[in-house]
Specification:
Blueprint (H helix, E strand, L loop, with lengths): L14 H16 L7 H7 L15 H10 L6 H8 L18 H4 L6 H14 L2 H12 L9 H15 L3 H17 L16 H6 L15 H6 L7 H5 L8 H19 L3 H21 L4 H26 L14 H8 L2 H17 L2 H13 L7
Helix pairs in contact: 3-4, 3-8, 3-17, 6-9, 7-9, 8-9, 8-14, 13-14, 13-15, 13-17, 13-18, 14-15, 14-17, 16-17, 17-18
């Protein structure tokens, strides 16, 4: 009589899942940037306001660069044509800013045109990395301005300039910095000196969600930020995070934690959009950190972490009211599928996750892509 097996049999293979994951992974690893159409697209946006007609932030510059970064630049102008009806003009600059008095002029939210003129002049006279580094230093405490869209726009344009410098891309960077300066708004959470004793996941585990009386519902993410004044010990807890070590590796670790945050909380179309910003803001901070001194890069690292923690505190009560989505498989060609899907958040999220996957091949990034497509309805573009 044969002896009983004393070890567990392997789980049955899901060959369909294996094939889907293999195809998606192969597609991501093969994708290459194509910026040949970017300047034509950005030229169309040169005099467009950062505010859409509906009051939300204009994602178009970010989407244009993200499509090109994924090798989907041929889709950029078509995407733009469908979005133009919602754009508003930036208007001429009625006056000039006093650069020596910049502290009193950031965050006024009514001088975008003047800031554009100022940054264009600066970028004509000085190396773009010098201007970028100075103003990231000045504006980094307003990292979450406009739900991080100003930071995102700045990062996308700086990455485009890394590929090639052109007057169109310099103007696009000027527009991004102008939006960040004009709308500058720090989170209402106070500050504590960094203690550096816990890793990202452990620190997030100590974040206290907002009580039901103060937790936001669906609506603007910035409205949720305003509720953080009621977040217990938020600044004290976030100050515990350890920012030491190799900066690129720390950003990769944070990207993975923000992706896990997305996977646990992105359960409805609204919460997909909310927690997309935890992932894309971290990717943006990483991009900017490559162009600035190490100390400033660590400030970006902290602000990206703080922003993800803010989304957790404000929106986890709403997110966890919905059941977890059924686990899905990623599309075989995520970049192409994102371009056809057409949603600006899906495009930017997919690009950020593609880049992260290319660096580490961690399957969590494929899972997040799959979940985003499964939960957020598509309206394919031909």
């Amino acid at each position: 009589m044969a002896a009983p097996l004393d070890f567990a049999l392997p789980a049955p293979r899901n060959w369909h899942a294996d094939r889907a994951l293999s195809q998606a992974a192969g597609s991501l690893l093969k994708s290459r940037p194509d910026y040949s159409r970017l300047d034509a697209a950005l030229t169309r946006l040169d005099t467009v306001s950062p505010a859409l007609a509906n009051g939300y932030y204009n994602h178009a510059p970010m989407v244009m660069e993200a499509l090109c970064a994924m090798g989907q630049g041929e889709q950029a102008l078509g995407w733009l044509e469908q979005e133009i009806p919602g754009f508003t003009p930036s208007g001429p600059a009625p006056g000039r800013l006093d650069p020596d008095d910049w502290r009193s002029q950031i965050g006024t939210q009514d001088h975008d045109a003047e800031w554009r003129a100022y940054f264009r002049a600066e970028l004509e006279d000085k190396p773009w990395r010098e201007v970028l580094s100075l103003w990231v230093h000045r504006l980094v405490d307003g990292f979450s301005t406009s739900a991080c869209h100003a930071v995102l726009q700045t990062a996308h344009m700086s990455r485009a300039l890394q590929s090639e410098v052109s007057s169109v891309r310099l103007n696009a960077l000027a527009n991004a910095l102008a939006a960040w300066a004009d709308r500058y708004t720090p989170l209402p959470v106070g500050t504590h000196a960094n203690q550096g004793v816990l890793d990202f996941r452990a620190t997030l585990s100590w974040i206290t969600p907002l009580p039901d009386a103060h937790a936001p519902g669906e609506g603007a993410i910035t409205a949720g930020y305003a509720r953080l004044a009621h977040a217990a010990d938020f600044a004290e807890v976030t100050s515990l995070v350890d920012l030491s070590g190799d900066l690129a590796m720390r950003f990769d670790a944070l990207m993975l934690e923000m992706t896990r945050l997305f996977l646990h909380h992105a359960r409805t179309p609204f919460t997909v959009i909310v927690f997309t910003h935890a992932v894309t803001a971290t990717a943006a901070a990483r991009t900017l950190s490559e162009q600035v001194p190490d100390a400033l890069g660590r400030r970006l690292l902290f602000r990206a972490f703080e922003h993800g923690a803010a989304l957790l505190a404000a929106f986890s009560p709403l997110a966890l009211q919905s059941p977890e989505p059924i686990r899905a498989l990623p599309p075989s060609h995520p970049a192409h599928r994102a371009a056809r899907h057409g949603d600006d958040h899906i495009i930017k999220l997919t690009e950020a996750l593609c880049s992260a996957y290319q660096r580490s091949a961690n399957p969590a990034y494929l899972d997040a892509i799959a979940q985003a497509f499964a939960v957020l309805p598509a309206s394919d573009r031909d």
